[in-house]
Amino acid sequence: MKTLIVYTSKSGVTKDVASLIENTLSGSISVVALGGQSKDIDLLSFDLIILGSPMYMGYLRKAMRRFVFENQEVLLRRPLALFVVGAHHQVNLDKYLRMSYPNTVVEHACIKSHLGGEFRFDEMGLFKRMLVRKIAKEKANACPGEVKIEQEAIATFSEEANKLLAGVNLE
Question: Quick one: pLDDT at residue 80?
Fold first, then answer.
C-alpha cells in the first residue's frame, strides 16, 4: 500500500510531526513538502493521502489551502487524513478545518487530528518572539497545559492510518 504525506511547515514542527508519522506507517511512504508553489503529484497513484499543516490565528498555511483547492476533485477520490499542529491544545478542529478547506474535503476525511505543537523561539525574530511569549502566557492562564507535540495523538493517528491501509472501516 502506498501513502503520500503532503505537509507545509514554517518553523519545522509540522515537518517533524510528518516524519514521526512516516516512521510509524506501514507500506511505501512518500513525503512531499509544499513550498510557495503547488507540486505536480500523481495523487491517484496513492492508497492514502495525509495532509498536514500548522495553524496560525485559526487558519492553515496558504500553500496547503491552495494545494487542497487545486486538487480537491482528486483528493475526494482517495482515503484522506488531515492533521494540524499548533499551540492550541483545546482547539475546535472541525471549525478551523472548515475555515481553510472546502466542506466536502473536511467531510470526506476519514481521520482528522490536532497533534500538538511547539514554540520554537530560535526560529522567530525579536518582535514575533515577544508577541508569542505574551500570547502564550495569556493562553496558559486561561487554559493551562504544556504546549508540546502530542506523541500519543500521533500514535493514535498513525494507528488509524494503518487500519485504513489495511482496509479496516474506522466508523
Answer: 96
